[in-house]
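Re: that chain you flagged

S.,

Sorry for the slow reply, it's been a week of failed gels. I finally had a moment to sit down with the sequence you sent. For the record, here it is as I used it:
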Amino acid sequence: METATPDPISPTEAVAAEAITPLPALDPAPVVSPKAGGIGLWVRDLLVSVAASVLIITFLYQPVRVEGTSMLPRLEDHDRLFINKFVYRITAIERGDIVVFHYPRDPEKSYIKRVIALPGDRLRVDRGLVWLNGKALAERYVPEEYKDSRSMTEIVIPDGSYFMMGDHRSISSDSREFGPVDRDLIYGKAVFVYWPARDAGVVH
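Prediction finished late last night. Pasting the structure tokens below so you have them in one place:
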């Protein structure tokens, strides 16, 4: 183990050291009680937690309220949920995602729908059955009683656009009416219902 040996003090340095006037004694530091310190730490941690929560909600998540029943049975009218506003900056939009976007015909309004087709996909609807790239699409999220018999001729989804549909097909106003939605209009992914408690859970 390395050691440090102090240099010998010369007689001159010793005399100089003796000539130094000693500093006045300092008052002892105030004693802080453990209880006071604990409260201070608790307040600090609380403030940090609140600040972190505000930042997360502001930049990552946003609470929204569902208005309407086009996404039954998963999302009911007046359900409150969090949408992730950041996720699509680092990951791609995928088929089956439930997203929130500005209504193409009135950007002041927001819609929540499911992504059915991606840019470049070929899509048609035959008496309620969705065909995607030549194959019938299995849609377990659409109960039998919510299906309809509407048809739509085949289209190719333009670059930078997405085809949206509601799960309650018989009452949903979606891309079958207003067409594919531009990527720039999509601003969040539905991730979690927090109210009412009976509906709380991850959104699929």
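What I noticed first: Residues 1-23 have pLDDT under 50 and may be disordered.

Talk soon,
D.
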